[in-house]
Design a protein that fits this description.
Blueprint: E1 2-7, H1 11-21, E2 27-34, H2 37-51, E3 55-59, H3 65-75, E4 79-82, H4 89-99, E5 102-105, H5 120-123, H6 126-132, E6 135-138, H7 146-157, E7 161-171, H8 185-192, E8 196-200, E9 203-207, E10 213-218, E11 222-228, H9 233-240, E12 246-252, H10 255-266, E13 275-277, E14 280-282, H11 284-291, E15 305-316, E16 319-330, H12 331-338, H13 342-359, E17 367-370, H14 376-385, E18 391-394
Parallel strand pairs: 1-2, 1-4, 2-3, 4-5, 5-6, 6-17, 7-12
Antiparallel strand pairs: 7-15, 8-9, 8-12, 10-11, 11-12, 13-14, 15-16, 16-18
Helix pairs in contact: 1-2, 1-13, 3-4, 7-14, 13-14
The structure holds NADPH dihydro-nicotinamide-adenine-dinucleotide phosphate.
Residues 8-13, 34-36, 39, 60-63, 83-86, 88, 106-107, 141-145, 183-184, 187, 295-296, 343, 347 line the site of NADPH dihydro-nicotinamide-adenine-dinucleotide phosphate.
Amino acid sequence: MGKVLIIGAGGVGTVVVHKVAQNPEVFTEIMLASRTKSKCDVIAKDIKSRYGIEVKTAQVDADVVPELVALFKDYQPELVINVALPYQDLTIMDACLEAGVNYMDTANYEPKDEAHFEYSWQWAYREKFEKAGLTAILGCGFDPGVTSIFTAYAAKHHFDEIHYLDIVDCNAGDHHKAFATNFNPEINIREVSQRGKYWENGQWVETEPHEIHKPLNYPEIGPKESYVIYHEELESLVKNFPTIKRARFWMTFGQEYLTHLRVIQNIGMARIDEVEYNGQKIVPIQFLKAVLPNPGELGENYTGWTSIGCRIKGIKDGQEKTYYIYNNCSHEAAFKETGTQGVSYTTGVPAMIGALMFMKGLWRKAGVYNVEEFNPDPFMEQLNIHGLPWVEVHNADLEL
Ligand code: NDP
């Protein structure tokens, strides 16, 4: 059906290439481009040996629009899947507009010099994509992504009005390292160390980092201490589902992880500004990334499960009801299939399914859209087929 270009050869990029290669009837040609071409070549070689599928590779600096435009014009993909870093979202969108290519990503734009993310920068491209007749699909990983689609599915089939939404993200896996992050360490540490924020009665309520927490029970896993943090899908969900009175995002952290995080912050290693070192300028958090385990290579000894879902309370046919929808994903199964751990897997699979929705013409409309603005049904069907089956519980005790 079409050519796809994937940008970013990290943990998530690896999974996207695997899943795309598993669906050759939809993705007729594949290219993987990234800053370091040798990483693309290693992935391409593995794909060739596993599935016999050819993946072209290329070097590109996605911070540089003319480099991207030259690559897009040369390869002429139908769709670019951006799984580089959130810093590159706007340059890749600019290049898509210039070269006439459709766009998809898994994380919203974040400036390098400010630990702050919001959709306004990307939503500002809506009119340009509309005028160009191009589709941009924002946030098609697991969270954002599947959690947003779970919410859209609940709103479509199980509620007349959603009132309370709690997104619950548990990683009960063990990578057997003292400290490691499950996706890009720089982005991860910036995300989890910021102030907490949730939506209540029409406004944002701010908290100290990790101020609100309680143990929540996760299916097949049991109780895990869960912390309210700000997460990007809350911004678009409260806008697209205006009946929501309160929306929060909970993530589990182990004590070891939080202790390491506190030390990293206290000693200045989470700083994102430049410091002088031996006559050279370095950014401490970027240096830290260089010495931490590579998230894409954590998979080998990773055991246990992730469990991510939405706990929803609202009204159906005049009656109050509760609903819990979730997926549990095994780190070991993810590694066996793709050589990566569960967090890369749960992000890369939805990215491939979003691309499949686009290629089949099911999610194709000119403009810039968050995933919950499309029909959730065909996407939900594909989750069950491609490795992320979901479970629904009606009238469950949500503990919240
Ligand atoms: P990694 O750090 O493992 O990989 C990022 C890749 O992008 C690397 O290959 C890197 O190249 C490449 N890259 C970075 N800068 C550039 C550039 N200027 N030009 C070209 N390539 C570049 O990250 P992950 O795979 O863990 O995460 C990828 C994305 O997925 C991130 O945006 C992250 O926020 C998002 N994510 C989304 C989730 C969701 O559920 N929605 C969950 C987890 C992650 P190099 O190898 O040279 O460093």
